[in-house]
Amino acid sequence: MRLIIIIAALLIAVFSASASGRSWQSADPGSAGWSIEGLKQAQNYALSLRPTGIMVVQDGRIIASWGDVSRKVNVASVRKSLLSALYGIAVSEGRINLGSTLAELGIDDRPLALTETEKQATVRDLLMSRSGVYHPAAYETADIKRKRPARGSHEPSSFWFYNNWDFNTLGTIYRQRTGEDIFQSFEQKIARPIQMEDFSHRDGHYVKEQASEHPAYPFRLSARDAARFGQLFLDGGRWGDRQIIPSSWVKEATTAYSWTKRGRQGYGYMWWSLPSDVWGLNAAYAAGYGGQIIAFIPSKRLVVTQTVDLSQNPKGIKTSHFIDLLREIVSAAP
Fold first, then answer.
1. Over the stretch 224-242, which tens digit does the pLDDT of each residue have?
2. In 3D, which of 170, 99, 174, 96 has the Cα closest to residue 133?
3. DSSP-derived 3-state class of residue 314
4. In terms of CATH architecture, what is 27-75+220-332?
5. Distances in Å between the alpha carbon of 47 and those of 65, 101, 109, 308?
6. For residue 315, what is the DSSP state?
7. CATH 3.40.710.10-classified regions of the chain
8. With contact defined as beta carbons under 8 Å apart, do 82 and 171 qualify?
9. pLDDT by residue (tens digit) across 31-51?
10. Residue 4 pLDDT more than 50?
11. Class for domain 78-191, per CATH?
12. Residue 151 CB neighbours (<10 A)
């Protein structure tokens, strides 16, 4: 019995080191029950897409890594999920109230001011991308500009539209209510505690445009640091023996409050969710233009990240192609 207890303690220690240590530990896929042929097929498909780096992590250990997983790239709209995590901390500390309206927070914009109706949108509405504020925004794609609804066409909370104005304004609210820089805050509250190997606050910057006073806040991440962030959410906001993000926020942020037209992907608090009938419960991902992805699948204890340097692969990788890759990886998993 004593021997069994010692072995169990050693196994717990090994897992803890792999999931929350300074550097990732690797696992032998075959010994872990993976289909080697299936994993090879996934690798071949992945490399055909020309990513910069891909990490496949199960139970806190590397199953596979393809490409340059230490190279930092602009992860585009993944920035929104990173900020969502900071919001979870700030809300739990009582520094931000999700029910506060833009009017109460003194939020406006220029050169076109917000209407009184628009100012009734709450912080929660912005997190869900349901503000009803269709003001021009910094860092928008041409597609979003073309599809943006007319000002005043929808009341706050009544309509979902993937809206950079909401996301950028959340950055302004975070800085105002906490008095902290987004990137320094992320480094101190998340990157250091989960021992990211590559990120520093210098890997973020603000993008300002004349169309709006609320700047965007792009991040640069490596695939292996992105995997740590995915592991943090997979483990309910916990890293080792420390609760970094409240577990209640992890669940709340990755719950679908809106669904795309096809009804197969939902949107939470700046996170995308996947249908449970295909991926199991609570599967979600962060996505950025060009193929930047952080996905976690609790039913398989799996994290998969993908980065794409658009200077080397200008067309990027479609999210739908990543989902196809994710299916192959999940099929190969035990």
1. 999 999 999 999 999 999 9
2. 170
3. coil
4. 3-Layer(aba) Sandwich (3.40)
5. 11, 46, 44, 11
6. T
7. 27-75+220-332, 78-191
8. no
9. 999 999 999 999 999 999 999
10. no
11. alpha beta
12. 16
